Structure prediction request, 293 residues.
Amino acid sequence: MAEGRIIKALSGFYYVQSDNTTYQCKGRGVFRKNKITPLVGDFVTFDLDENDEGYIKDIKPRTSELVRPPIANIDQAIIVSSAKKPNFSTTLLDRFLVLIEAKDIDPIIVITKIDLLADEEVDKLKQYQKDYEEIGYTVKLVSNKRGPELELIKPLFKDKVSVIAGQSGVGKSSLLNALNPSLLLETGAISKSLGRGKHTTRHVELIEVNEGLVADTPGFSALEFDEIELEHLPLCFPEMRARINDCKFRGCMHIKEPKCAVKAAVESGDITSYRYEHYVNFVEEIQSRKPRY
Prediction:
């Protein structure tokens, strides 16, 4: 019996890395019967036959799990936004942040293509950077010219399992190719008519980048809050989570309740008004969600 980690899943086979060797494995039939799917990132035990073909016997408990992309045991999510083409959007960034926070995964924000901005636009972006850093997030700005700031990003990957998230066309594959030129990941041509990138990544695989593992995953723009319960939403905003015990009412949703510490912080400027507006919009979105039976 050997132990390892699934680094790729493709066409019903699982590729398990163990002691610097990768073995092609199949899952046990009992997994299918019990509706258990081994995921990329899973730590597993497996048996090998005489041809070094493996059979996964057991899956270790997961520390985290994503549905889209299907991957387990992630340490951090690197959310890639672009400054231009597509234009930077705090609404979209906050959607990603909420979805990552809901999974108890650490988010890191990387904003690409800053070289496409005029000086006054750079100043505005740097204010957003300051806002998010004050919340406690790590925020890195990089240009498409791949200058010295790329060196600032490299240490983020060391000894971590990272997932790269972000809408299509923001430069996720380009960034990974710059960090590890041997990858030669397919980069999507921006579709001029749609204004967004074409999907280029078709399976989930953990690839080595700067002494860490990274899942290169499809860019996606459908970011639904299907799995987030209304009362859990305030916990996905760190600046609200920090004030949870300061509101008068327990379970305060920070909308209409009196003596709400979050609303007071918005009024005093300690919580940015745009983050609060997004929160209110997300509350309404979850409230209008059709019930599932």
Observations:
- Residues 188-201 have pLDDT under 50 and may be disordered.
- The radius of gyration is 21 Å.
- The longest helix spans residues 119-135.
- The CA atoms of residues 247 and 260 lie 5 Å apart.
